[in-house]
Amino acid sequence: MRKTEKIITTLLLLLPLSTLADGLWAHHEVEEEFDTIKEYIEEGITNQGLVVAHRSDVGGMLERTGKDLVAKVSKIHSTVEEKARSMIKIAREKIGIEEGNGAETDAPASEAAASATFTRSEVIEFCSATLSRKMTDADPANVIFCPYSIALYSTTAAPNIVHISYLQLSKIGSSSSREVLLEVEAMLSKIVTEATE
Questions:
Q1: Cis bond leading into 147, ω under 30°?
Q2: I need a labelling partner for 117 at 20 to 30 A (CA). Which of 88, 98, 104, 192 fits?
């Protein structure tokens, strides 16, 4: 890699992802029920003669792991607090300080709170044997783009808005495969546009 390319790569890595968002993925938003848009997206995939391969409930996973994290933090906090109280008791006994003179407070342990970002968040994955074959024939590295995915999410800040995003593969893939990657993008665009109209 030449020095100029290294500098550009370093600068891109330092930029916040949101700065690059418009160049890396297409984003749509619509005021609609989440399940309605999800159904339209899946119907659009089927209308292309394709089958949904997988649905990832990203929001549910984050919620579950958030609760687990809160539970672990609370348990660690309780254990640390219990050990600290035991050490204070031992120290008091050693130097002859009686309990209950105000030196120790029984303030409740602060509880960690898991903040939710999403009300719903799912990624729908699917593939096209024909387009995938053309992609990998053009550049074997394009296998990383299989399966294609469309992300849908609603945030706690705006629960009535459904955001729909997909990668613009032609901005990421090699120039030798740009033509077929644009074909994939056109298909993704058609699915999303029909779902949001």
A1: yes
A2: 192
Would you list the domain boundaries of the chain?
12-63+114-196
Question: What is the helix (H) or strand (E) element at residue 66, kind and residue range?
Answer: helix 58-95
* Overall fold of domain 12-63+114-196: TATA-Binding Protein (3.30.310)
Q: List pLDDT tens digits, range 107-160.
A: 443 333 345 788 899 999 999 999 999 999 999 999 999 999 999 999 989 999
Nearest to 195 by CA among 53, 54, 57, 45: 45
* Distance between CA atoms of residues 67 and 73, nearest Å: 10
Give the closest residue to 29 by CA, choosing from 184, 164, 181: 164
**What are the pLDDT digits (tens) for 39-92?**
999 999 999 999 999 888 887 777 766 555 555 555 555 555 665 566 666 656
**How does DSSP classify residue 166?**
E
In three-state secondary structure terms, 89 is helix
Strand extents, DSSP E, the chain: 25-31, 52-56, 118-126, 148-155, 161-167
Q: SS3 for 105?
A: coil
**Residues belonging to the chain:** 197
- CA dist 192 and 19 (Å) reads 23
Which residues, listed in sequence order, are joined to residue 54 by a DSSP beta bridge?
Answer: 125
